[in-house]
């Protein structure tokens, strides 16, 4: 009969294997992304990459998560020191991978198998603010918006667009400064120009194109957790509606994100 010591040793070895798998999965995503950008492939291939990668990773990730859950339930009190750190590392890595896969799938599905409908953007704003109440309370954020138009859009993506920009404005706040966020719109002859203004940390001019590229991040995961997909998703959604997205920013003062949608496509 296997002793407790033998069981723990066996699970330690499996733990090392699981840890290596997490690292391999992370390297796989980085390598595929790097290759894709070096080849400068079309956006359609990037979508296919996102879809296939997310599906390729789901099964090994489920295996890792299941294994970690077994270890945590049955042997959590047996792991100490380096073994406990390794277990925590695997759990954190698996959680990050799970979030990344969900974000990749979301990115690959933008505008797919959906039809446009007339949407009251004011209601979208209120729904987003209601859903962010926990973050708003914790950060003492102030969010305001001017009257918004009814537009003919992909409703889910339209909501994701504003949600990502507002969420970023809350997340990338200055230390000790409550976020102040204002959203508005200007109606022009052929387009609507929306903006999201904040008083956050700001972005250096040299990074203002980079932030819209998938997987490109300016901060470590410890500083600001995330996947590096949110703003790439915003860009894709805006372009889906015949518009463009850009920003003005000053480090230590704040940023204003602008995006347009073509009136002929949105009315």
Automatic annotation (TrEMBL):
Catalytic activity from the UniProt record: ATP + protein L-histidine = ADP + protein N-phospho-L-histidine
Record-given protein name: histidine kinase
Keywords associated with the record: Coiled coil, Kinase, Phosphoprotein, Transferase
Organism of origin: Neolewinella litorea
Record-listed E.C. numbers: 2.7.13.3
Coiled-coil annotated residue ranges, if any: 1-35
Gene3D superfamilies, alphabetized: 1.10.287.130, Histidine kinase-like ATPase, C-terminal domain
SMART domains xref list: HATPase_c, HisKA
Domain Histidine kinase: start-end pairs: 52-265
Gene Ontology MF terms: phosphorelay sensor kinase activity
InterPro entries: HATPase_C_sf, HATPase_dom, His_kinase_dom, HisK_dim/P_dom, HisK_dim/P_sf, Sensor_kinase/Photoreceptor, Sig_transdc_His_kin-like_C
């Amino acid at each position: 009969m296997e002793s407790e010591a033998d069981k723990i040793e066996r699970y330690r070895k499996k733990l090392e294997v699981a840890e290596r798998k997490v690292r391999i999965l992370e390297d796989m995503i980085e390598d595929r992304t790097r290759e894709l950008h070096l080849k400068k492939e079309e956006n359609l291939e990037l979508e296919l990459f996102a879809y296939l990668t997310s599906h390729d990773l789901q099964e090994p990730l489920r295996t890792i998560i299941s294994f970690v859950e077994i270890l945590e339930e049955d042997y959590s009190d047996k792991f100490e020191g380096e073994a406990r750190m390794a277990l925590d590392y695997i759990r954190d890595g698996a959680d990050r991978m799970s979030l990344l896969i969900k974000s990749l799938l979301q990115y690959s599905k933008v505008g797919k198998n959906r039809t446009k409908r007339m949407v009251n953007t004011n209601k979208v704003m209120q729904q987003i603010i209601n859903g962010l109440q926990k973050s708003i309370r914790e950060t003492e954020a102030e969010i305001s918006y001017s009257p918004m138009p009814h537009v003919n859009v992909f409703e889910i993506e339209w909501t994701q667009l504003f949600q990502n920009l507002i969420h970023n404005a809350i997340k990338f706040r200055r230390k000790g400064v409550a976020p102040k966020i204002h959203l508005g719109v200007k109606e022009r002859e052929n387009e609507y120009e929306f903006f999201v203004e904040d008083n956050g940390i700001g972005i250096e001019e040299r990074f203002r194109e980079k932030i819209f590229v998938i997987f490109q991040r300016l901060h470590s995961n410890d500083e600001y957790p995330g996947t590096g997909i949110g703003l790439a998703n915003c860009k894709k959604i805006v372009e889906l509606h015949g518009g463009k997205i850009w920003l003005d920013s000053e480090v230590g003062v704040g940023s204003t994100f602008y995006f347009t949608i073509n009136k002929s496509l949105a009315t």
